[in-house]
Design goal:
three-stranded antiparallel beta sheet; 12 strands; nucleotide-binding; Glutamate--tRNA ligase; 48% helix; elongated; aminoacyl-trna synthetase; mainly alpha; 4 domains; Rossmann fold
Length: 469
């Protein structure tokens, strides 16, 4: 019987959901969902000074926007402190950990001497093998008894076998003198208790794996499978930072990138499936595997992100796209679309979503729907509404009133009008755009007419024709 795959995402709630964290969450989600497994969420909130409920909420909001649903309750690492202490005491009882009474001053003196003698400054506690009868009545920490010789090998699905000499691993503290557990212990215990089978995380945690493995081995627990993924770099090859642009997932939502495009782009950031660039969620779940993850850092590329987002906007079902557009408006503090505008947007989505890479671009194209009479043309469009153009619109409008409201009939009516007046259609298109949208860059004038309907189209053209130049 094969074991069910269990992955986890374990962010620290000290701020927004970082784009690198979002990709880690996505990789864990894809791996579990593609294998009928579980994807768990643990908030590593042991640093009480820096952990905030607002940051936890920001992480949950970011994951909800990305569509990364998790199984079961959100687990708080802090609330599991008693269990972490229990494991440290079990290790103490079994002899795989010990009480260390060395003071900070003694540890520093050891390191200073070692440095001056050219030896390793890793602290070697004199209490490691001390007889408990010699223990003083003084504060102590509990340390893990790390092996002193040989090596620890991390079998990593991405990095390959990584060997760390044991003389480079110290007897790490498990419980501080105030009885509080350290992060390394908490992570190992939580991963074991949650039944995590695959630890997929950034390669900045690679050294942590060696130390966390020692806890597993001391407790006789089976090790999880490790996969340490390279970090994300900016276009310049340096670690992604604020100077490269947005770091928080919430900022990408506010910039108007669709979640499906973001998922697609983040999946491709460090993982590949042949030459496939654009793919659906179903394909990503089916294709995603650890052997497709590269060893080199991935470079964030806004052009690629925008290109993929444009393809996803074009491919998304109209109603779903409209629903996400409303979410974008809410995230940026804008009022939701009225029922009337919503209906028109759905009607017009076919001509809005082609070539729009973000929701602001889509809304820009939808200006003819979102604006209300009287239409105020912008400076560029106003140049197309001189007295001659208004006269032309005045002549065309009655003919449109008698046209059947189909694309073919509207095009035939406009073309016939242009030929009769010995003008190119382009000469007619400028004034029509200005009258219908107040803009010079819009969808096709015939698309706008069809979406707005006959009554509203005629009303806008009449308004424009009647205004004095």
């Amino acid at each position: 019987m094969t074991t069910q795959v269990v992955t986890r995402f374990a962010p620290s709630p000290t701020g927004f959901l970082h784009i690198g964290g979002a990709r880690t969450a996505l990789f864990n989600w894809l791996y579990a969902r593609g294998r009928g497994g579980k994807f768990l969420l643990r908030i590593e909130d042991t640093d009480r000074a820096r952990s905030t409920p607002e940051a936890t909420q920001a992480i949950l909001d970011g994951m909800a926007w990305l569509g990364l649903d998790h199984d079961g309750e959100v687990i708080s690492q802090y609330e599991r402190g008693d269990r972490h202490r229990e494991v440290a005491l079990q290790m103490l009882a079994s002899g795989t950990a010990y009480k260390c009474f060395s003071t900070q001053e003694e540890i520093q003196a050891f390191r200073d001497t070692a440095r001056s003698e050219g030896r390793s400054t890793l602290f070697q506690s004199p209490w490691r093998d001390a007889d408990p009868a010699t223990h003083p009545d003084a504060p102590y920490v509990i340390r893990l008894k790390a092996p002193r010789d040989g090596s620890t090998v991390i079998h990593d699905e991405v990095q390959g076998d990584v060997t760390i000499r044991n003389d480079q691993l110290d007897d790490m503290v498990l419980l501080r003198s105030d009885g509080s557990p350290v992060y390394m212990l908490a992570v190992a215990v939580d991963d074991h208790d949650m039944g995590v089978t695959h630890v997929i995380r950034g390669d900045d945690h690679l050294n942590n794996a060696a130390r966390q493995m020692l806890v597993y081995q001391a407790m006789g627990w089976p090790l999880p499978i490790y996969a340490h993924i390279p970090l994300i770099h900016g276009p310049d090859g340096k670690k992604l930072s604020k100077r490269h642009g947005a770091l928080g997932v919430d900022e990408y939502q506010k910039m108007g990138y669709p979640a499906a495009g973001m998922r697609n782009y983040l999946a491709r950031l460090g993982w590949s499936h042949g030459d496939d660039e654009f793919f659906t969620d179903a394909q990503a779940r089916e294709w995603f595997s650890l052997d497709g993850i590269g060893k080199s850092p991935a470079r964030f590329d806004f052009k690629k992100l925008e290109n993929l987002c444009g393809q996803h906007i074009a491919a998304t079902d109209d109603a779903a796209l409209l629903h996400e557009l409303q979410g974008f408006l809410a995230s940026t503090g804008h009022a939701p679309l009225s029922d009337e505008k919503n209906t028109l947007m759905q009607k017009g989505m076919y001509c809005l979503k082609e070539r729009a890479k973000t929701f602001p671009e889509l809304l820009e194209k939808a200006e003819f729907i979102l604006t209300d009479r009287p239409i105020e043309p912008d400076e560029k469009a106003a140049k197309n509404l001189d007295d001659v153009s208004r006269g032309i619109l005045g002549e065309l409008t009655p003919q449109l009133q008698n046209a059947r409201w189909t694309r073919d009939d509207l095009e035939a009516c406009a073309m016939t009008f242009a030929e009769t007046h010995e003008m190119k259609f382009g000469k007619l298109a400028g004034p029509l755009r200005a009258a219908l949208a107040g803009r010079s860059a819009t969808p096709s004038v015939f698309d706008m007419m069809l979406v707005l309907g006959q009554e509203e189209t005629i009303a806008r053209l009449t308004d424009a024709a009647c205004e004095s130049g």
